């Protein structure tokens, strides 16, 4: 008889060694020394599989059917767990815990269920059959021993339906009524929880609106305060600039009170400030006047010279006549 676990049948042989640092190799290969040996026994290597290597792990037909059945059951169990989780997600959940508190999971069912995070594992076993073609062994039937005895039972001696069914009906009706009452109480409790959740959400929304209003009011106050501070700073800055300008103007006037007349006098003496009328008279009028005077004098001189020449001729004629 050989027992093979399900995990061994589904997994293959693997080897994983512990991690270790890579040895630093030399850049150039060195000659091996006589004392150093590179040979070893491979039977001590953990990567070598020991045992017969010619025997293949072949599962019999019955074991394969059992494995298929187990896989189908696991698939059904997984689908049931998925459906149960989906139903749990659809159910109405309790409201979130308040700040500083936390919910605790409490079982409210009639029968307690042990909660554990340990995954259930089970081992499957099978018996290898040496002769697969051999027919099944018949069931063992022990030999009959002892003396047979019998008794006669009439109808109604062991079971009276009208009397026995009364207890069954009471149990069934009681269970139905109890279940109905539990369902009604659960519905009422869920309705109360929904009402409390709605009231809590309304209060929370009202508080959130009030908080947002206060935050907006505080933000407006802060903006107004900053704007007023900026305006006051701007006014103080302008007043400071005006005061500096007034002080600079007064200092400049006081400093230039005696400096300006002396500068203007010096510039006027050096000819930097020219009178336009005087300049016009000197540059335009006087040259024109001199030219006109010269032209008139030239005409008078010419006239006088002409007159003087005629008088000389007359005098010469007179003298010539007198001499004659």
From TrEMBL:
Bias-annotated ranges (Basic and acidic residues): 20-32
Tree of life domain: Eukaryota
InterPro entries for the chain: Radial_spoke_3
Protein name as it appears in the record: Uncharacterized protein
Record's subcellular location: Cytoplasm, Cytoskeleton, Flagellum axoneme
Pfam families attached to this UniProt entry: Radial_spoke_3
Chief location: cytoplasm
Keywords in alphabetical order: Cell projection, Cilium, Coiled coil, Cytoplasm, Cytoskeleton, Flagellum, Phosphoprotein
UniProt record similarity statement: Belongs to the flagellar radial spoke RSP3 family.
UniProt region (Disordered), positions on chain: 1-38
Annotated coiled-coil segments of the chain: 197-242
Gene Ontology cellular component annotations, sorted alphabetically: cilium
